[in-house]
Description:
Strand content: 5-15%
Largest sheet: 3 strands, antiparallel
Radius of gyration: 20 Å
Structural class: mainly alpha
Strand order of the largest sheet: 1-2-3
Amino acid sequence: xxxxxSLGHQFHQALESKKCIGESRHEAKKQGVAHEGIYSYxxxxxxxxxxxxxxxxxxxxxxxxxxxxxxxxxxxxKYIKFREQSGCSAYTYSQDMAMISKTLGISLTKxxxxxxxxxxxxxxxxxxxxxxxxESGAIETILRGTGLRRNELVNLQVKNLLxxxxxxxxxxxxxxxxxxxxxxxxxxxxxxxxxxxxxEGLESDxxxxxxxIPKELQAHRYRAEYAQNMYKELVELGxxxxxxxxxxxxxxxxxxxxxxxxxxxxx
Length: 267
């Protein structure tokens, strides 16, 4: 008797069955079947990562569920609400909803899940300073200097820092990046010496931050602050396309995303 595959593997099989890499999404759209396939590796990798987290959550919350067909609409709604309450952005749980729709055929709306939408007004509202600060202030300072996502900072090791003349001038993001994409981040000038002093004496394999990042800390607000100030630095450096450089620093592919960090992309 064949062994029943895990939920994670069942999600993997479902995603594999949707792969249409190399095929024309435009043609599929004309035929009305574009929603059934996955047309890029980037989307596939994003859904794969999302499905792994969802499968893990289902196993924890509903241990009796053994098959994808046993996951119902209410479970999915509860998960999306859980993701919002865990501090995930509207963009992140929108991706979760897309993955669920693609693999389970359960099309959810943010309204029925009672979560915020991906509107610019909501993003700006979430960037208002809540006044929370850590005791040492080290986490906030590093986030201001690097613009890293919360999970990227949690996984950052000393060996991932690029050091020149007793200054940390860059960060090589290898683990924890959205979509698993490796990138190099330029550190803002005013924080290069501070970050170097913070890690001086630590072993190469040590984590840069050894304290837990509190949920109350608004990592995305500091990320937006980095984007706005780093853009000014790139302009002052005379970069040919500072918006493109900043987009890559932030780990995105489209310049238009920068507007959500308060960067004026019309300049």
